[in-house]
Amino acid sequence: QSALTQPASVSGSPGQSITISCTGTSSDVGGYNYVSWYQQHPGKAPKVMIYDVSNRPSGVSSRFSGSKSGNTASLTISGLQAEDEADYYCSSHTSSSTWLFGGGTKLTVL
Amino acid sequence: QLQLQESGPGLVKPSETLSLTCTVSGGSISSSSYFWGWIRQPPGEGLEWIGIIHYNGNTYYNPSLKSRVTISVDTSKNQFSLKLSSVTAADTAVYYCVTKKSGSGWYDYWGQGTLVTVSS
């Protein structure tokens, strides 16, 4: 199984919105609503920001939102803040009852 | 609130077996409500899912690692463990123990991670 495809990097200025894509296949992203997004700051463990495609855990800012169309899921961060600068990973359940991660996207806040 | 803590050797020789333990606090590893698992991250690289186990023994492994991986549960110690055999330098990574609720598709609790280096 191959990793889900994410852009290596994205950037935006404070206050702007950015979107990170995550492309898989009908056997993973397209076939299940078990898509989640994780934020990882340097030296820290990942933290879930979005689960089940578009749900936010308690305590996560409403500036983070998720969606899915076909085999591609997306994470949108609106009103960018300096603290959002981090690596972001998507993850999906697969038809083999396993989990796949994306290669990760480095977000730079200019 | 669940807390997870990894422990084990930080240095393993090539061809040997990597062994890590995750101690669970704040909840019972025998709960049917959770799966327990491992995810790793090579230095400077992305996350790789290794596998998960339910206390009833059901296991699911990454196909690329399946022949070398064993995840098990020790209910008496409220711990679960990872064994990865025949390691090479490519297995050098930060290893995280994680948990997810049964029926959910996301990992809500993570250990702090432990770096394991494979080198002679």
Low-confidence stretches of chain A: none
Estimated structural class of chain B: mainly beta
Q: What is the gyration radius of chain B calculated from CA atoms?
A: 13 Å
Order of helices and strands of chain A: EEEEEEEEE
Rg of chain A, Cα atoms, Å: 13 Å
Most extensive chain interface and residues per partner: A-B, 28 and 22 residues
Distance between the termini of chain A: 35 Å
User: Which whole number gives the mean pLDDT of chain B?
Assistant: 95
Number of strands of chain B: 11
Average the pLDDT over all residues of chain A and give the rounded result.
96
Q: What would you call the shape of chain A? A: globular
**Structure annotation, total helices of chain B:** 0
Total helical elements of chain A: 0
The assigned structural class of chain A equals mainly beta
Distance linking N and C termini of chain B:
39 Å
Helix fraction of chain B by DSSP (H/I, runs of at least 4): under 10%
N-to-C series of helices and strands of chain B = EEEEEEEEEEE
Shape of chain B: globular
The main β sheet of chain B shows up as: 7 strands, mixed
What this model shows, in words?
The complex is a heterodimer of chains A (110) and B (120). With 110 residues, chain A is mostly beta strands. Helices cover 0% and strands 44% of the residues of chain A. Chain A is built from no helices and nine strands. In chain A, strands 1, 3, 4, 7, 8 and 9 form a six-stranded mixed sheet that branches. Chain A is globular. With 120 residues, chain B is mostly beta strands. Chain B contains no helices and eleven strands. In chain B, strand 5 and strand 6 form a beta hairpin. Chains A and B meet through strand 3, strand 7 and strand 8 of A and strand 5 of B.
